[in-house]
Amino acid sequence: MTITRINVGPVHPSTGGVVRFVVDLDGDTIVNVEPHIGFLHRGVEKLAETRMYMQIPPYTEKLDYVAPMAYNDAYVGAVEAAMGIEPSERAKHIRTILLELQRIASHLFSIGLLSNDIGQMFTVFMWAFKDRDMVLDLLQEATGSRMFYVNMRLGGMQRDLPPDFADHTLDTIKYIEKRMFEYAKYMEKNPVFTERMKGVGILSREQAKELGVTGPVLRASGVSYDVRKNNPYYMYEKYHINAKTMQTGDNFARYKVRILEIQESVRIIKLVLKGLAGSEGKAEGMPVKLRSPNPVNRISIVRRELPRGECTMYLVADSQKPYRLSIRSPSFINLAAVSHISKGARFADFFGILGSLDFVIGCVDR
Amino acid sequence: MPIQDAIGNIFNIGYWLGTGNLLYQVIGIIIYIIVVSIVFSIFGYMMGWLERKLIARAQYRHGPTYVGMWGLLQNLADMIKLLSKQDVIPTNSDRYLFGASLPLILALSIFIILLLPYSPGLQGTTLGFGLLIVFTIISFLPLLIFTSGFSSGNKFGAVGAQRSVLILLGYEIPVLLVIAAIAMFTGTYNLNGIVNAQQSNYFVLIMPIGFVIFFIAMLAEFERPPFDLREADSELVAGWLTDVSPPYYALALFLDYARMFLGSILIAILFFGGWLVPSYLSFIPALFWIILKAFIISVFIIMVRATTFRMRIDGILRFGWIWLVPLSLINLIITYILFVG
Amino acid sequence: MIEPLAKTIKTTFFDKPYTTEFPENKEALPDSYRGRLRLDMDTCISCSACAIICPNKTITMVSVLTDKGDKIMPQVGHERCLFCALCEEVCPPKCLVLTKNYDYEAYDKRELVTRPEELE
């Protein structure tokens, strides 16, 4: 029983960023994993205390660089709750559509990276990125940028959607829906994939609830909890989300939940697009000025469902800049589950577990 | 010897060796070595280019396009870059064994390639037991891989080499049982005889299970995906290629394509009839047909690389012992009952 | 295993590649694309709103000699710019705009700091 200590160092192609894992191995079995984080700490929460309200979105959206609009929306939602401003009906529709598109793009990224970690020669990775590229083209049409959008304002958006956005969106998501069936068949008919993913890295229901993981990781262990369903916001109050769960809690379940969630997002986008034409109100929110309005409520807490889990923004509002902004990021809590899941697994499965937990280090380190 | 006779038979080694003159015999051998080396080098290089283009097309990409027309010179540029780097040998290693292992593997692979028959005229050996020699040398290669990894003085290299050898040893038995079935059916170990015995039916139609087993075992023997534990799976670093310096790494990359050529030619000879085609197509020379068959098999091997995931070490061993060995025994028994006994 | 292989073979030989061969072919950009900045010096009223709103303190006001005398105008550090377009939104006469130009390079970081005269 000799324990070898291996360093999966900060620079590694298979982790989701710069993070260091100290892995204790007994032969080929993992005994203990200890993550060391902090390589990407940029001090966003402290920066937020020195900037005005409208200057902070460029910083918060760089936390999760795979799905930036979700953090943008969480922050702007917190400020809107502090100012007592309610977004218009049309703005709610547009925000829902763009957020669900962002969720599709993020899950495609995650599926591609997971296949890469298992050892595929980049084929599924490239296909997933091709589809993600189509979604990013849609988002570029709507906001002007492919990655860092800064398009949410108090009470609405920066600009309205272009006139042919609805048709392009429908074409793209119909194509993606068809592709999702092909992906599922491609991966699941591959015996090597199912052998390496099923029964590996099991997280039981009780452990998941105790650790506090959220997002697809929690739903893959059988707990049906989704912030869009339990605390609905925007258009989720009208169109109900089915939280997709799987019962097994292994790597395969976590991957499958993401595919099912993409299909759910496609369904919601189609419903909201139908209601978009008849919604009233102005899409544009308050434009950015040198003085922001004065906050009405001192403390505001907002919960959103990011593609990776649940994010809570806690904002203590002062007159022109926040007094304190605290972010509960989903990847930080999900990363803590690594040591519980990988006890007893083989070392080659470690990368599959990392890929299926799907954390981004920008979100972990803030 | 009359000149027209010589020119008509220039690629027929049997003719050159049949003249009693030592000079003509040596010239015949040199012509054979040159022709086979040219075929092998061009095939190896084209496979390198084709692999990059085909895998790129499978991923909706273009592949190399700038260097040379259609990116044909890209591999040459990479080789030049790798060969121009500094040769670093770690102090912990046994430098003579380490430096000699890789070139020795390449030399042995080329030796086997020179032993195979390519057309009725170009035959490497007419010995009665050509098949046995080929597979003996193929079975010796794991030992060289092990010495190369072990002598690098790096614990990752040693463990990676151990794993590679474990896979290669585990997949020897199905290979040997399948070629035993072929030899039993044909009644000879002579490679020329095996090809000529397929004049009525290719062996892939007679023993399809044997073909599938041999194909999968060849993928394992030559470390092609899904059996490539070389990169990133053996304890995070490149296994037995951890500590090789760039010139030797270029050699190892070329070795990959050399072994793919060897595997494709073996499958073409043993299962697809070598150079034999239906008689209405025989106006095209025989060398073209065997290269075409090897080409199609290599394309299929590249497609397998683009599709599969990498297997874990215990999955590979479990698959080999639980599935391939019994199936190859069943193949042997069925061949005996149906065709021989 | 047969179905995934068939799908790979179909994609390799029968589907067109999706990537664009840059720089010979470029894709069309939407009008709201956020690229390099451009300043209209005649309409700038020197209010410094862009310098105040920039989150990264990228824009500094420098003094420029124009035919109407000495005025201060924004100097943009393009190596630090986040391209968030907040400065475009607060500018009262809308003289600072973001163009569609994304294709610029320099050997030294300091060459990218553009004075107002070069922001054209």
Give a structural overview.
- The complex is a heterotrimer of chains A (366), B (341) and C (120).
- Chain A has one domain (50-333): Orthogonal Bundle (Cytochrome-c3 Hydrogenase, chain B).
- With 366 residues, chain A is of the alpha+beta class.
- Chain A is 46% helix and 13% strand.
- The model of chain A has no long low-confidence stretch (mean pLDDT 87).
- Chain A has helices at residues 44-47, 57-60, 68-83, 89-118, 123-143, 165-188, 191-197, 205-211, 216-219, 227-230, 251-276, 330-335, 338-341, 350-357, 361-365; strands spanning 4-8, 20-26, 29-36, 152-153, 156-157, 299-306, 309-317, 322-328.
- In chain A, strand 7 and strand 8 (322-328) form a beta hairpin.
- In chain B, helix 3 packs parallel to helix 13, helix 4 crosses helix 12 and helix 7 runs parallel beside helix 14 (313-340).
- By secondary structure, chain B is mainly alpha-helical.
- Helices cover 19% and strands 21% of the residues of chain C.
- In chain C, the strands form 2 sheets. In chain C, strands 2-3-5 form a 3-stranded antiparallel beta sheet.
- In chain C, a hairpin with a 2-residue loop joins strand 2 (59-66) and strand 3 (69-77).
Q: What topology does this entry show?
A:
The complex is a heterotrimer of chains A (366), B (341) and C (120).
Chain A: E1 4-8, E2 20-26, E3 29-36, H1 44-47, H2 57-60, H3 68-83, H4 89-118, H5 123-143, E4 152-153, E5 156-157, H6 165-188, H7 191-197, H8 205-211, H9 216-219, H10 227-230, H11 251-276, E6 299-306, E7 309-317, E8 322-328, H12 330-335, H13 338-341, H14 350-357, H15 361-365
Helix pairs in contact in A: 3-4, 4-5, 4-11, 4-14, 5-6, 6-11, 11-14
Chain B: H1 3-8, H2 13-18, H3 22-58, H4 74-83, H5 95-115, H6 130-150, H7 155-170, H8 172-186, H9 191-196, H10 203-206, H11 208-221, H12 246-271, H13 286-307, H14 313-340
Chain C: H1 2-14, E1 37-39, H2 49-53, E2 59-66, E3 69-77, H3 86-90, E4 96-98, E5 113-114
Antiparallel strand pairs in C: 1-4, 2-3, 3-5
